[in-house]
Design brief:
It is an enzyme of class 2 (transferase). With about 325 residues, the protein is of the alpha/beta class. The protein is built from twelve helices and ten strands.
Length: about 325
């Protein structure tokens, strides 16, 4: 009898900020996965609650990276992925926020879907705590996909995708080494859209409905729900992406750009405080057209071990 193949080495990256109770639930769920994780890198984004203590109490499975300042979700994932690559030799990285609670078989289903294939990204089905599909984390199906690719994906129980969310995204480590890290200066919003489309440009990815995670947001809202002052990041980052990033081709930028404008209009129409959105639009448009994101080595400098890992994984 031939020996069983060595399972892939998976390192989870969890970005935490002031949700200690939820973080404890996430870490318990990660420890209970049917496929054992090699390590869980928890990035504490300068929390003011007990998040760091919760991570330390989780034991040897967790590698805690405490940042001296809040770098947002984008900076947290960039720092955590860099540490995971530099220090833990993963085959795959599994990315999630500190309010993402994976079901026991979530990782096993992702790995089963990509095993023996050329897929480099896989995303889970994301539900709210009542089991409702979460509209905030809907993946974008791959357009104009060929029959062979669609059939191959279906045989794996998956759907070909063009983008997915950091709320349970599995990405192959060699692709991270090739394309680099998420752009830290995005801070929040659209960092996962930019990064997943960058990883999937010219490559294949899957949405895996059998892999289920629970996204425990306070409310069940879509991406066009009223964002308040955060609308600034939506506008700035989309403009940065469409003008600066190579994650999308020209035709894709036109299509997704038009879709974004329609979403912004819906957001404005539904808003209870349009003055705030006007200000976010004005500042976002100004910065999105007149500035560009800094290199990660600059945006994430002064973070000690995390900065060293960024420089190692993403040299200038």
């Amino acid at each position: 009898m031939s020996p069983s193949p060595v399972p892939p080495r998976v390192v989870a990256v969890v970005v935490a900020y002031n949700r200690a109770e939820l973080l404890a639930e996430v870490l318990d769920a990660l420890a209970a996965q049917r496929v054992a994780l090699a390590k869980v890198v928890v990035v504490d984004n300068a929390s003011t609650d007990a998040s760091a203590e919760v991570a330390r109490a989780a034991g040897d499975l967790v590698d805690l990276v405490s940042l001296p300042r809040n770098t947002g979700g984008a900076g947290g994932f960039a720092a955590g992925m860099a540490v995971a690559i530099a220090d833990h030799e993963p085959d795959w990285l599994w990315l999630m926020d500190d309010d993402t609670v994976p079901t026991e078989g979530a990782l096993a289903e992702l790995l089963a879907a990509v095993e023996g294939t050329d897929h480099v990204v896989a995303g889970s089905r994301v539900v709210w705590h009542d089991g409702t599909e979460h509209p905030m984390n809907t993946p974008r199906e791959k357009p104009f996909v060929g029959k062979d690719e669609r059939v191959a994906a279906a045989r794996r129980g998956g759907i070909p995708i063009r983008s997915t969310s950091f709320v349970s995204m599995l990405v192959r480590a060699d692709v991270v080494r090739e394309i680099g890290l998420p752009i830290a200066d995005y801070f929040i919003w659209n960092d996962d859209f930019e990064y997943s489309t960058r990883a999937l440009r010219g490559r294949r990815g899957l949405h895996v409905p059998a892999s289920v995670v629970v996204h425990k947001t306070k409310v069940l809202g879509a991406t066009d729900a009223d964002p308040g002052p955060r609308f600034y990041y939506e506008v700035r980052n989309k403009l940065w992406m469409f003008r600066r990033s190579q994650s999308l081709g020209p035709f894709e930028k036109a299509v997704y750009g038009a879709s974004s404008v329609r979403r912004w209009i819906r957001t404005f129409v539904r808003s209870a405080d349009r003055t705030v959105l006007r200000d976010g639009w004005r500042r976002g448009y100004r910065d999105g057209t007149r500035t560009r994101p800094r290199p990660n080595a600059m945006a994430l400098e002064g973070l000690g071990r995390a900065s060293d890992a960024v420089a190692q994984v993403e040299p200038a």
